């Protein structure tokens, strides 16, 4: 069973773990042309802090962060920070 799953993941371009996130926090990656964004969603009733693997930019505020604070059921939309920014 392991080999078919590896084949499907490789051919689909899916990545099982984009970056580590606290329990109850989901991370999704979306592409459009040459743009890539990350959606970080807190599915729980408690505030969570998600540490990021690298500095990223919050799309709505253009703020560069190394972690995002997510209120209960909160969502953050991020993009990779441009070098030199």
Characterise this structure.
By secondary structure, the protein is mainly β. It has a single domain (17-80), classed as Sandwich (Immunoglobulin-like). Helices cover 13% and strands 47% of the residues. It is built from one helix and five strands, in the order αβββββ. It has one helix spanning 2-12, and strands at residues 25-32, 35-42, 48-58, 64-70, 75-80. The chain has a five-stranded antiparallel beta sheet with strand order 1-2-5-3-4, with no helix packed on it. The longest helix has 11 residues, at 2-12. The protein is globular. The N and C termini lie far apart (44 Å). The model has no long low-confidence stretch (mean pLDDT 85).
Keywords:
85 residues, mainly beta, Immunoglobulin-like, 1 helix, 5 strands, globular
**Structural class assignment:** mainly beta
Main beta-sheet strand count, sense and barrel state = 5 strands, antiparallel
- Fill in the CATH topology: Immunoglobulin-like
CATH architecture heading: Sandwich
Question: Order of strands across the biggest sheet?
Answer: 1-2-5-3-4
User: Averaging pLDDT over every residue, what do you get?
Assistant: 85
Task: Count the domains.
Answer: 1
Name of the level-1 CATH class: Mainly Beta
N-to-C order of helices and strands: HEEEEE
Individual helix count? 1
Q: List the uncertain runs.
A: none
Radius of gyration: 14 Å
Distance between the termini: 44 Å
Kindly report the name of the CATH homologous superfamily: Golgi alpha-mannosidase II
**Strand proportion:** over 45%
- Percent helix, as a range, is 10-25%
Shape from CA axes? globular
Beta-strand segment tally:
5
């Amino acid at each position: 069973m392991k080999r078919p799953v590896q084949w499907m993941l490789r051919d689909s371009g899916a990545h099982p773990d984009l970056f580590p996130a606290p329990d109850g926090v989901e991370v999704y990656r979306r592409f459009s042309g040459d743009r890539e964004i990350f959606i970080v969603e807190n599915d729980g009733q408690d505030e969570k802090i998600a540490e990021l693997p690298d500095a990223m930019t919050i799309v709505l505020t253009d703020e560069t962060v190394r972690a995002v604070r997510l209120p209960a059921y909160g969502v953050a939309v991020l993009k990779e920070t441009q070098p030199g920014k």
